[in-house]
Amino acid sequence: MSQDLFEELHELLIPKISKCTTNWRTPISTRERLVICLRYLATGDSHQTIAFSFRVGRLTVGGIVKEVCTEIWNTLQPEYMPSPTEETWKQSEKGYRETWNFPNCVGSVDGKHVSIKCPKNSGSEYFCYKKFFSVVLLAIVDPCYKFTVIDVGSYGRHSDSGIFENSIFYRQYVHGKSLLPDKPLPGTEEPVPHVLIGDEGFALKTYLMRPFPRALATQDERKTNFNKRLCRTRRVVENTFGILAQKWRIFLRPIDCDVDTAIDIIKAACCLHNYLRTKQGTAILTPESEDENVPMRALITHRPTNRRSTTAAFETREQFVSYFNQ
């Protein structure tokens, strides 16, 4: 974050994080409060380390981090992660069609486990299959590596597909509705639904495409070509999570705080990610320039699901298979 962007962010937050000066004490300045929060997010250091660095109390650091993260979300979310509109989906579809060669795609969706300290009296609710405690960050990403929608705070033991179908986004935009009206793929005449794309952790739906199982794809070149095109485009959400974790290194270690504060931290980091991507205008990795073999270890993906899909979902995927093998 450049100094100019820091000052701009500081100006936005001054009314929200300032404290009154009293006869008893002079409060910590708004600038220092913001720096403490950003230092914590950017380094992942413990509250005690941050307290020693700024000569404040450990509990003071914890209170500042929670308050400032909450205000970052309340201030930046309406502008940098607003509720998606029809125009938002149209711009996303255009980007995926022109940059990633996947028409009728409006977003790449994936869920990641964010490691947290074991919550008190939580049993196995937050214990994921990777053998650590976590909350799930489910995100839909546009072609410019910015978060369109996020869902934070689900139990680590839940699957991607279950979290997605119980999210507010699903009830508001997907269930019984369509993201955008159907339209033909380029060079064809039959209307095809607009879709999200995900990995094997999601069930195949008319609005969500997933790759063919590897055992089937190896026996059919058409399915192999579809998998290559889908997985290359789905790397957008993987790259976004990687950028998020490398810039905000709090994600490289378990978050040592209660669950509500961890959720505020994750939401603030996602908003700051969109803020910096919008202001800095960082270049987009093209399909030809990205490395398909780079692992992303900070945030752990979900395991595959084997839920049965409807005939309409299989037919929709077959239309994409035919288009990519013309």
What is shown here, in short?
Its main location: nucleus. The protein has 326 residues and is α/β, with parallel strands linked by helices.
Beta content: 5-15%
State the helicity in percent bands: 40-55%
Q: Describe the sheet with the most strands.
A: 6 strands, mixed
Return the average pLDDT rounded to an integer: 87
Q: Which stretches are poorly predicted, pLDDT < 50 over at least 5 residues?
A: 291-296
Global Rg: 21 Å
* Helix-strand category: alpha/beta
Q: Give the helix tally.
A: 11
Shape: elongated
Give the termini distance in whole angstroms: 45 Å
Write down the secondary-structure element order: HHHHHEEEHHEEEEHHHEH
Q: How many DSSP-defined strands?
A: 8
Which characteristics define this entry?
six-stranded mixed sheet
What does this 3D model show about the protein?
The protein is elongated and about 75 Å long. Strands 1, 2, 3, 6, 7 and 8 form a six-stranded mixed beta sheet that branches. The protein has a two-stranded antiparallel ribbon with strand order 4-5. The chain has 326 residues and is α/β, with parallel strands linked by helices. The chain is built from eleven helices and eight strands. Mean pLDDT is 87; it is low at 291-296. It starts with a helix and ends with a helix. Helix 1 (3-17) packs across helix 4 (58-80), helix 4 (58-80) packs across helix 10 and helix 9 (221-247) crosses helix 11. It has helices at residues 3-17, 30-43, 47-54, 58-80, 86-99, 160-165, 168-174, 214-217, 221-247, 259-280, 311-324; strands at residues 105-115, 134-141, 147-155, 183-184, 191-192, 195-197, 208-209, 300-301.
